[in-house]
Structure formats: structure tokens, C-alpha cells
Design a protein that fits this description.
heterodimer; A: 429 residues; alpha/beta; eight-stranded parallel β-barrel; four-stranded antiparallel sheet; globular; B: 79 residues; alpha+beta; Metal Transport, Frataxin, Chain A; three-stranded antiparallel sheet; 3 helices; dihydrouracil dehydrogenase (NAD(+)) (chain A); EC 1.3.1.1 (chain A); Aldolase_TIM (chain A); 4Fe4S_Fe_S_CS (chain A)
Chain lengths: 429, 79
Amino acid sequence: MADLSIDLAGIKSPNPFWLASAPPTNTGYQVQRAFEAGWGGAVWKTLGEPVINTSSRFAAVHFNGQRVAGFNNIELITDRPLEVNLKEIYETKKRFPNHAIIASLMVEPKQEKWHEIVKRVEAVGVDGLELNFGCPHGMAERGMGAASGQQPDLVQAQTTWVKEVATTPVIVKLTPNITDITVVARHAVKGGADAISLINTINSLAGVDIHSWNTIPNVGGQGAHGGYCGPAVKPIALSMVAECARDRGVGVPISGIGGISTWQDVVEFMLMGSTGIQVCTAVMHHGFRIVEEMIDGLNNYLDDKGLASVTELIGKSVPKYSNWGDLDLNYKVVARINEDNCINCNKCHIACEDASHQCIEMLTNAEGKAILQVREEDCVGCNLCSIVCPADGAIDMVALDSGAAPLTWNQRNQVISGLNGSYSEAEVV
Amino acid sequence: MSAYAEFDKERQEVDTLLRQGYSITSIQEDLDGARVKFISSEPGKSSQELLLLTADARKHVTTLLFAGIKPVTAIETHI
């Protein structure tokens, strides 16, 4: 059995599975039950001046029978006094000394406010701090959360203030509601961040009730934008993690967050540069015990791969993620339809005909059977047919050797630029 | 005409000129495609220009150049 323990910027945890700062980490009762279930760490629900939350807080997007494909919330940070939370953190840490407890913090962007809360929270023995610069609703209107996180200079300044007094590792949690997350990540690092975590939730409105015309959710007929999370956001989160992981100006450990629901998701986030991961929505949907399956699945995967430690996964796919301009234009794949598995639903033909390059033909074979066949020379390898195909094994995307040397868009532009440069000179002469 | 047939026609035009001793001397890309200019070092042969429309043909010429078919230099042009 592989070693699942991690060390994220000095924060040690028996496994990479942490609960994200959210409703499941609201109390000591919950966090202790989570640790009993197998979670290796927990980021306590954000501490700050206690708020008053609304009733009717959550909404979900169900898609084609998949419940909670996406999740939306308008809940804010803790509504309990700091001292109450600190007492429970102390008791939880005492009971689970080897588990990681990280305090998520959010206060006004003032040096003295950060100093005060950091000192009080560290006094009860947390293993690290996570600065919440990402919450998109409610707190942002008061200049905190995402409002801070969207301003790189403010992220840097606040991180610096925290580092002036912090004695435990500082993780800066980033908002995805920004054009380029690496800019903020680099400013966090300039401020002294020991690690970053991403992503926080994405600005969202879950829906509008077409009968009552109310927003979903609504509070007595009035709605407000919320934060979106759950499986639907995973590709966005993974992309942002990857961008930070490959940015040399960032260069600190990453705690990956965003739609992680299975052990496979965990592997993906770690391969793309996360040292550990955080989960919220999947727990809100299925409860703490989903971690059991995640631990078993990850253990089996590591054993199958012959890896002794989960840390061997960290960042292994990062070198495989680059810019579009560096992709090989001469790489070619084509679709091949396996008649044995094809159910002749024609979805591939329709997709190719209506949305791609019209290269899947409906034919009749020698036995009079209807078949679908790809004209490979016209296939651009877009993958659409294999995506829409409902039958396993009916369509394979096959790499062909084009015989041409690899050529990227950037190399192509260099060739043309060099060619035209010499030609211009000739023309002048 | 299939996309491949369009490409193949343009590729053959390019390859024919190259076989005839022409060299690619410039590629100008605009909204209408790539204008590829060919010249020959043989006396009496006038320069040629192809407007390549298909993506694969535009890729083909730059692949050839990148793979080592030397562009014509300023000196060669005026010998």
C-alpha cells in the first residue's frame, strides 16, 4: 500500500484529501466526524467578523438526470463568534493531532485587522492559514473576498501583512472571477504566500423559475448572484491549476479545488500540479464517507502504477500542458468506426454533417447492411463523432503517421517571417 | 469537391513548381489565404504565384520550408 501522506508547504497531512472551507467545516462536530471518516485535513469555514446569513442559500443545476452537476450558494462566512470557533478548533486539534487543520480567514483589508485575527487563530494551534480572497458574494460587496482577490496589489499587501505575524504556513485562496489567475497568484507569492489554493466559486445565478419568474435561489422573491461549484466547474478549475503550476513566477505548492468528486479527479489535479486537494460539493451531496472510496481508489491506482507515494504524482502532467502555438500542426488523428460495436444510431453522421466536416457516410455493405464509414482523408480528427457516440468501442480515434516532420504554429510563423525578411531585402535590391 | 481533393489539387500545384526547379521566395497571408511566390534561378523563367486557400496546403508549404527546403536568399535572387 502506497504512502498517501503529503506535506503542503510545511502542512503535514495523512492523506491529500482535505475538506474545503465551506458548510461541511462549520463546526468542530462536523470536522471531527470528517476526520473519523478518513479526511486528512480540513480548512475551517472562513473566520472573520460573524455575519448573518439568509434563509434559502443553496441551489443546484441538475442536468439530464445527473443531480447536482453544478451547485450554487449565497451563504457567507461563519455566523458564529470567533471565540466559539477557536475553542472547537483547539478541541479538534487536540483530538486529531496528526490531521491538518487550516483556518480560512477573511477580514477587511487593513493591516491591524489581519494581525489581530492571525494571532488569535494561531494561538489555538492551527497548522496553517488560508486567506479567503475568493468568495464572490456578500463579503465582496464589503470590500473583502473576491473584491480583494480581483486586485493583485491588494492580494500582495494583505498577504504581506499576514506574513508579518504568521508563524504557520500561509495559503492564499484565489478567485477564478478574473481574466488571468496567474497574475494574482504571482502577487500572492510576492507577498510571501507559502502556497496557493484554487479555485474559489465562480459568479453565478443557478436559474430563473419560468413560472414564478423568481431567481433560483431567492430570498422572499429577491435573488443575488452566488458562487458556482461542483462537477461542472472541474475543467475550469483544472485549467487554472495548470496555468499556475506551469508559471515559473508562481512556483509554490498548490492546493487544488473545484468539482473534485472522485479519486480519479484527485489524480488529475495532482498530475496537473496540486500537492493536495480540497472537496466541498461532493461532500454536501454524498456526505463525509465518500472519502473511503477515494482513499481506496487512490491506493489501488498507486499500487497499479507501482508508485510508493502519492507525492510521485505531483506535477507529472504539467510538462505536457503548453500553449496552443506550440502544438504540432502535423499531428493527425482520424475517426474509425468499428462495425461490430456500432449500433447505427447515426448520431456520428448527424454531428459530422451538421457541426463538423461532412466526412461520415451512410453506406450499405455487400450484405445489404447499413453501415457508417469515415472518409479518412477528409476527417480533421475533431473527435466530435466519438464524443456523441453512445456505444462503447464503436468509434476509435486513431493516430496516423502523416510522414511530415512536426511543425507548430509558432515555428511556421518563424519560417514565414524569416522567408519574407530575406525576400523583402531582395525586392529592395 | 471534398476538402481533401481541394487540398490535393493545391499541393500538386506547389509540388509541380518545386519539381520544375522553382523555390519559394515569399508567403504573404491575408484574409483570402496565402499568396506563395515562386522564383526560378533558370534564366528566362518568370516568377509564379499561387493563392493557396486550403489550410492543409498552407501547412504543406511551411512544412516543406521548415523541413529544409531552403528559401531563396537575396543574393540568389539576383544572380
